[in-house]
Write a structure and sequence with these properties.
By secondary structure, the chain is α/β, with parallel strands linked by helices. Helix content is 26%, strand content 24%. The chain is built from five helices and eleven strands. The strands form three sheets. A seven-stranded mixed β-sheet has the order 3-2-1-6-9-10-11. A hairpin with a 5-residue loop joins β4 and β5. The two termini are 28 Å apart.
């Protein structure tokens, strides 16, 4: 129910709204010290009215940062591949779900995410504790569990619209807080993460 409400609000955004927010979001994200010092970042290609990532992906590459992008597997887990510019992406339809833009090159395996410095996470909302509400597919829950099992702690950052920073989101036992949220108007950090 809550997820549907956030998606409904996003779906009301115009293409211009999404484009303008993406430029501002990229500018704010690039101010993060975690990204300034990163060698490798796991990110994602936004779809539809999600907060836009293409500008940010290109800016990260321009800084010489290796960018890993997810490839959705049949069981909803994520494999990874390198982003080498817009031409390295292929549109892939997964069953009845929306088409995703995924890296078309070599697959690095699900554990490749364990070697990154920062994970830029999609989401629908984040609350004052840094708890992220995802889309409900569980793909990123698996990623975060994989990182925990590997004993690695990259900076976890969620990219959202300003209205998606809320007082409280429901959580489950396996949920993990993020270090920061980046919105078009700025960055909010969460203590202890």
């Amino acid at each position: 129910m809550l997820r549907r409400e956030f998606v409904t609000v996003r779906n009301r955004l115009t293409a211009d709204d999404v484009r303008e927010a993406a430029v501002a979001l990229s500018q704010r994200a690039l101010e993060l010290p975690e990204l300034a010092h990163a060698r490798t970042v796991a990110a994602y290609v936004s779809v539809g009215s999600e907060p836009g990532t293409p500008v940010l992906l290109d800016a990260l590459r321009a800084r010489g940062i290796d960018v890993l992008l997810p490839v959705l597997l049949p069981d909803n887990d994520l494999d990874w591949g390198y982003y080498d510019g817009e031409g390295s992406l292929a549109r892939v339809r997964h069953g009845g779900k929306m088409a995703l833009l995924e890296p078309s090159g070599e697959r690095l395996g699900p554990d490749a995410v364990s070697g990154v410095d920062v994970v830029l996470l999609p989401g629908l909302a984040v609350d004052g504790r840094g708890m992220r509400l995802g889309r409900g597919g569980g793909s990123y829950d698996r990623v975060l569990a994989r990182l925990e099992r590997a004993g690695v702690h990259p900076a976890l950052v969620v990219l959202l619209y300003d209205s998606e920073v809320v007082e409280h989101v429901p959580t489950e036992e396996h949920d993990r807080p993020v270090r920061a949220v980046v919105t078009p108007s700025g960055v909010r950090r969460f203590t202890g993460n």
